[in-house]
Structures are given as C-alpha cells and as structure tokens.
Design goal:
TIM Barrel; 3 domains; 8-stranded parallel beta barrel; about 20% strand; globular
Length: about 750
C-alpha cells in the first residue's frame, strides 16, 4: 500500500508524549500552558516543548502544537512572543481555531504550517475552500460526519493540496465542536477557551425515558472501520485524550499501531480490541461514522466502563468471581504499565548540552567548534587573524555574542577559550556571520527565522455615525414588521432543506428587505441547497455563521457579514476575513465581556455588530436529544426528523437548573438556557464602536416560551438606541427572564 496513514496521538504532558512515541505514533499533538483547548491537561513549558520536538524527531515522529482557542485582543502581544519562541523550534504544525491567528502566522511567521482545528466546525465543501484561502495545510473534519461525507470532503481537500484528519478514538462531544456554549453559559468556562466543564456529562433529574445522563455519549472507536477510512483516503487518524495519562496514551496508540500495521502488511484487521477496553472508556460507538444515529450511542454513566466490561465478558455471577475478574484486569494494566516504563526509561527531553571551543591563532582562521547531540559543528572566519590593538577579539566579546545559544534548545556550558590568543582581530562583520552560520547548523541547517514584530492595528471610524437596530425573524408572517421599522431585517434560513424546494428563495424574492441569515451547520445536501438559495435569490448582502457559505458568497460577489457563531473575538480575525474573502462586517462574539470588547479595532470600511437580545444557545447536536428525554418511536434520527420534528421539552440538572430542549422544523436539536440574553449596558458602553445592535425575534428557544409582542419590542429597542438615557425599566419588564452574565464574566 503506497498511501501514507498517519497515526496522531495526544500528548497532555511529557510522559504522555514519550508514551506516544514509543508506541509508534507518527505524530503527537500537545499544548503549552496558554492558548490551547485542554486547560485541564498538564501541558508543557516552552523548554519542554523543544525537548519533546527533539525526542519525537529522533523517533521519526512529528509534533503539532495546539493553539486551538479564540484569542482576546489584549493577548495578541503574548501570542506573538510565544510564536517568536517556537518559530525556530522545529515544530511541524500549529493547530488553530481563531481566524486572527491564521492572519498573524501567515503574514509574520510564514514558515509555520497551520492545521485547522476541529473547533472550526468543518463539514462542507465551501469550508474546505475557505480554509485554503486562510492558509490551512490540514483540516480536522467534524466528528459528526459519516464516511461518505468524509470521502467527498477529503477528495476536495486533496484537489486543493489540503490534508484531512479524523478523530478515530476517544471521547465524543454531543455538540458540534466550536458550537457548544453550555459550559460558558452555565459556569463561565468556555469550550472555545479550553475550559469546558463537560455539562453534557452532568447528572440530571431522571427523564421520562428513564435516564439520569441524557446527554452522555459513549466514546468513539473506529478500530474496525480502518479499511473504510483508508478507502476514504483520510491522511491522519487522530486519537483524543490530552487529559489522559501516559498509560492510556501508550495502550491506545500501541493497539492502533498494530491494527494499522496489520492492515498495511496483510490487508487484514486484528480482531482483538481487548486492550482498548482495559483503559478508561465509556464503552464504544462508531455511529457517527456509520450514520446510524440511534439511542445506542448513549450510555447512562460518564464513569470508566473498563471494569464493567471485563465483568460482562467474564460472565461472573458471584462476588468471588467478580473479585477474580477485577484482579485480572488490574494485573493486565500493570503489565501494560511495566512495558511502557521499560520502553521510556532511557528517553531524555532535557536541554542538550552545548559545548563551544574557540581557537584564535595568528595567521589562522578564527574557529568555533560546537558539540551537541553527539555531533560536532565547525565554523571558521573567512579572513586570517591579524594583530590588532584597536579592536581585538576578546573572550568577553565572543561570550557576549554567543550567549543567545543558552536558550530553549540548548544549555550552553562554559566556553573553552584555552586556545584564544589575545590582541588578534578580524572584521566584526565576520564574527557576526560566524554566529549566524553556527545558528544555522544547530537549527538543522535551516535558516533561523528572525524575531518578528506584529504592529498594532489602526482603529478606523465607524461606518455610520449612530448605531441602528437590526433584527432576525424566521417566519414570513413577520413580514409586516417591515412597515414599523427601518431596521435591517435578517431572515433565518434553516439548517435542513428539502432538495429542489424553492420555498426560501421565493420568500426572499417576495420580500426584498429580507437579508438571508445562514446557520452555523450546513452538511451535505443542506449546504448545496443553501448555495442554491444564493443562486436563485441573488441577495446583495447576507449574514452567515457558516464559513462555507461565506466562501460561496465571496465567489459570487455577494457582500457577507460574519454572524455571531463564527466566534469572533479580536481585530486580527476581522482583518483576516476582510483581506482573504472581502468580508464587509462581523458580529463580535457574545462570549466576551465589556473589557474584552473594549480594545477591538475595526478595519477600514468594516461594520461591527453586536447582539443585545437573543435566546442563549447552549449546544446544537446532530444526535437526537429526545430519544433519552421524552422518548421517540423512531430508532434513529433521519433527514425527515430534521425537516418535520418540532418536539420540545425541559431537562433539569441535579442542582435544580433547567434548560429548554428545542427542535424547530428544519433545525438541529438544540438546548437553550432558560434565560434570554438582554444587554442594554452594551448600548451605553459601545455606541461609538458598533454600527448595529441586533435583536432576535425568532421565538426559538425562548426560555419562558412566552411570546412577546414584536412590534412593541422593536419600538422600545429603537427608543433606547435613539436615547441612551432612556430608562431600561420598560424593556426589563417586557423580558422577565433574562441575564447578561456573559457580558460581565467573559472568557
């Protein structure tokens, strides 16, 4: 088989990275103390990262660094400092979520390779092309995709010289990655910042279907789907688990390595996956890959299933038999652990000692001899040394020039000057050239990238002097609102669409003031139908929460505005969208607080928008929330469910907090906070920053479910925008169940 199959393993700390390398991983992904989406992992220091890279490269493995969170404006200088620290480290790729990071890396650190994180929710053809424009070399496809969808996207990616990777083992999120705000809303810890509190694993009051953990999915395992993934031409098979320990990483990576080797060598699979069941797991499912979204994907406990699995396989019926089985499982784990300990005992990730000797003899060339990693590097001057009393080469001068080699990669010892004769000289420019040549050799004969400065972005004035109101509707029955307001009226396009149905393009054609609003998730035929709406309706402007539709709009010459679910939190992200795809404006994320908004700078001619009233989405899922809550007669969620189901219920966790479970026609199952977001303070704080303040009048996930009079709401919001001194009481009375906690707590 000529196809290269990369096995990509997690490295939450140095020991896990060692485990992955000796188990046969082709690549390891890891994070530093900041800017990565696994805050609960131990993570690495910059010094440890350099050691990990050296160790991995010695074992023919690559290392990818996770910078897969959204970045706040005040963090940009810290990010740039970090990039300067790692740009010469030999890192093989950066895993990125924030569009601003794409821009910074592409402009100022072009030698670094960018991988698009799963947090970018990549699931359609347009998104592949969008990421190509941004500079991505690789895309981690959404976990929710099935094999035919993965095959189509991989083929398109390869046509555009982009690699694809797919999660094949480990924990599954019930929500689309990058589109889960449950932790952020509930406890102020955002999944988009690596601080997910795993609300989907929480215990809830027992549901009508009899479940205490109605959102808890089994773990993912595509162990027996390897032939299909190879046939799909996926480039990288990714194991989840940066908060797991070295023993877990070794066991899973070693098991997958043997499976891949068996298939490559013989075309046959190993039929024994028992070792995968001996480490932490919640039982396993491959149902996203197969597209068989039944209630069997769930399990009513988030705890480790390994002991229970061993007991079930053994058929133990007595307490004594159970104890024997559990002791056997413990012994098996000890054997696996001992094997790991033996293999990593001699691995060293400490800094390499760098020893430099200086030879300066009259009528000879000045010579630097450096020894590191058991190798010797020799650098000489061009000129011969001559007597010099004015500017001799001294030990102090040379030591000062070479002190920069005491860095993250090397521990510079005392320099040997025993063969340095004083009062000799060469042109100083040759001394500088020698230092550069030595740095080149020590950097693997790769030219070191000089320190980069990223200039501050300018603040351009608002597009319009006074902020205006904009609003979102989802039903043509609300078209009469055009008669009571001059506000921009956005019309919500659903996530699922009938093939060949012209309903929504005709609505847009009948109502020229309607501006199409596209959702965050559009998979397969739904993406193609959404593109068809663009082609038929030919709108002049759209709002899109999906980067694939953004790409298509740019290609068709349609002005587009980035919606709030693109998670925009900094100025560089705005610049990225404007420069790469001619974006005309963007909503700033509602996850960030007042102070985090403060320093965002608008590009020239660019609109800024902010939502001040909306239902608070916590998560959206491709799975069904009703199978395990109120129950459903259908065995699996299907296309018709998307188009016709309108179920709604409430789930309440054991702390007594309730959430609205909502399913609209044409929408994915979603969960909303019981409160509405109402933030009038932002109008007073940032009328000089935002061109539009937005309100959502769709009645979707509206918490209390009480339908307010939309005309009255519009009138009151417009009064408030016209006069910031207008009392807030009327709106606060109209919207009884409300919060603006995110504007206070932020990220």
């Amino acid at each position: 088989m000529s196809q290269k199959i990369e096995l990509l393993a997690p490295g939450g700390d140095i020991e896990a990275i060692k485990a992955a390398v000796v188990a046969g991983a082709n690549a390891v992904y890891c994070g530093l103390d900041a800017f990565n989406a696994r805050n609960r992992a131990s993570n690495l220091s910059v010094d440890e990262l350099h050691g990990a890279i050296r160790l991995a490269h010695e074992h023919n493995a690559e290392v990818f660094l996770t910078l897969n969170v959204v970045i706040l404006e005040h963090e940009v200088p810290v990010l740039v400092k970090l990039l300067n620290q790692i740009v010469n480290s030999g890192i093989d790729g950066l895993i990125v979520q924030d569009m601003g990071v794409f821009n910074i890396v592409k402009k100022h650190f072009p030698s670094l390779v960018i991988h698009a994180s799963t947090q970018m929710t990549t699931h359609n053809e347009g998104q592949i092309l969008f990421l190509k424009k941004l500079g991505a070399n690789r895309v981690n496809l959404s976990r929710e995709l099935n094999l035919p969808e993965i095959t189509r996207l991989t083929a398109l990616a390869h046509e555009n010289e982009i690699l694809t990777e797919v999660f094949v083992h480990g924990a599954l999120c019930i929500a689309f990655s990058g589109q889960c705000y449950s932790s952020s809303v509930s406890v102020g810890n955002s999944g988009n910042r690596g601080r997910c509190s795993q609300a989907c694993r929480d215990e809830y009051e027992i549901t009508a279907a009899g479940n205490k953990f109605p959102l808890n999915l089994k773990d993912n395992s595509a162990y027996f789907d390897l032939p299909e993934l190879v046939e799909a031409k996926v480039d990288s098979l990714k194991i989840e688990g940066r908060i797991k320990g070295a023993h877990y990483v070794y066991t899973v990576t070693d098991t997958w390595r043997k499976q891949i080797n068996s298939f490559v060598d013989s075309g046959k699979l190993v039929d024994d996956d028992s070792n995968l069941h001996k480490v932490f797991n919640r039982s396993f499912t491959n149902s996203f890959l197969t597209g068989n979204l039944t209630k069997n994907m769930f399990i009513d406990s988030p705890k480790d299933y390994s002991a229970k699995n061993a007991l079930q396989l053994s058929g133990a019926t007595t307490e004594q038999e159970s104890q024997v089985v559990q002791k056997g499982l413990y012994e098996d784990k000890k054997v696996l652990g001992a094997s790991l300990a033996d293999k990593v005992k001699d691995l060293d990730v400490s800094k390499a000692d760098l020893v430099i000797s200086i030879r300066a003899v009259l009528e000879e060339k000045l010579t630097f001899t450096a020894r590191a990693h058991g190798e010797e590097f020799v650098v000489q001057s061009t000129s011969l040394l001559r007597p010099s009393t004015d500017s001799p080469i001294t030990a102090y001068l040379i030591a000062k020039r070479l002190k920069s080699f005491d860095n993250q990669s090397y521990a510079l010892g005392e320099i040997d000057f025993s063969e340095l004769n004083e009062e000799l000289g060469i042109p100083f420019k040759e001394l500088t050239a020698m230092k550069k040549e030595l740095a080149f050799l020590l950097n693997g004969s790769i030219e070191p990238v000089p320190h980069a400065e990223v200039p501050a972005l300018p603040q351009h004035p608002k597009v319009e002097a006074a902020p205006k109101l904009s609003l979102l509707i989802s039903d043509e029955k609300d078209a009469h609102l055009c008669d009571v307001t001059e506000a921009d009226i956005y019309f919500k396009i659903p996530e699922s669409l009938k093939i060949g149905c012209d309903k929504y393009s005709e609505i847009l054609q009948r109502n020229p003031r309607f501006i199409p609003w596209f959702p965050a998730v559009l998979i397969g035929k739904d993406y193609l139908e959404a593109v068809r709406i663009l082609e038929l309706a030919k709108p002049t402007t759209i709002v899109t929460n999906n980067t694939g539709i953004a790409y298509k709009a740019h290609e068709m010459g349609i002005e587009w505005i980035a919606g709030p679910f693109l998670n925009t939190t900094n100025s560089h992200a705005l610049v990225t969208m404007q420069e790469a795809l001619d974006c005309k404006g963007a909503f700033i994320s509602n996850e960030i607080n007042k102070n985090q908004i403060r320093n965002i700078k608008r590009p020239k001619g660019f609109k800024l928008l902010y939502s001040i009233y909306h239902p608070i989405l916590m998560m959206t899922s491709r799975q069904c929330f009703f199978q395990r809550t109120v129950g459903c007669k259908k065995k699996a969620i299907e296309d018709n469910c998307m188009l016709s189901c309108t179920k709604a219920t409430t789930i309440t966790n054991v702390k007594g907090i309730s959430f609205a479970v909502d399913k609209q026609k044409g929408g994915y199952p979603s969960i909303y906070n019981h409160e509405q977001f109402l933030n009038l303070e932002a109008v007073r704080d940032y009328s000089d920053l935002f061109d539009e303040f937005f309100i959502d009048l769709t009645d979707i996930g509206s918490g209390s479910k009480e339908k307010l009079d939309k005309v009255s709401l519009i009138q009151e919001f417009e009064k408030f925008l016209a006069d910031e001194n207008q009392p807030k009481e009327t709106l606060h009375q109209m919207v009884e169940i409300k919060t603006n906690a995110q504007y206070v707590q932020g990220l």
